[in-house]
Amino acid sequence: MTVLNQNVPEFPYVDVPNSPGLFVVVTPTGTYLVDIIEGTCTCPDMEYRDPAGGCKHVRRVRFAVGAATIPRQAVDNPDIQIDPALGEHVEGTPRTSHKGNPELAEMI
Ligand SMILES: [Zn+2]
Fold it and tell me: Is pTM, for the whole model, over 0.85?
């Protein structure tokens, strides 16, 4: 799953760089437009299930741009693999929470 903050052909009508909350997520099964401010995504999971806290694409973008924190316990746990490419194609830096409570540090 790759998070981009640039335009892709699937969304020619969206000026992603000039819309700070919009990001494109490219996955093996589809390319989706995510709005982390509104908490929306164009994927089928959001359309049919609308999970609390957003779909995995919304959560992934929030981690990738540093808008949500990764619990410190997850970062320090050698059994949990944090994707080293997280945030590779976007501005911002994934953040971690020493308290391990992402809700408290959530910026959105
Ligand atoms: Zn989604």
Answer: no
- Distance between Cα 40 and ligand 1 center (Å): 7
Distance, in Å, from the CA atom of 84 to the CA atom of 27, rounded to the nearest integer, reads: 16
Q: What are the CB-based long-range contacts (under 8 Å, 24+) for 73-79?
A: 73/100, 74/100
Q: Which residues contact 99 (CB under 8 A, 6 or more apart)?
A: 72, 105
Yes or no: say if 60 and 69 are a contact pair by the CB < 8 Å rule: no
In the structure, ligand 1 is a single-atom ion and the residues with CB under 5 Å from it are 41, 43, 46, 55, 57
User: How close is the Cα of 74 to the center of ligand 1, in Å?
Assistant: 22
User: From the first residue on, what is the mean pLDDT of each consecutive set of 10 residues in the chain (108 residues)?
Assistant: 80 79 90 92 95 91 85 85 83 70 48
CA of 79 to the centre of ligand 1 (A): 26
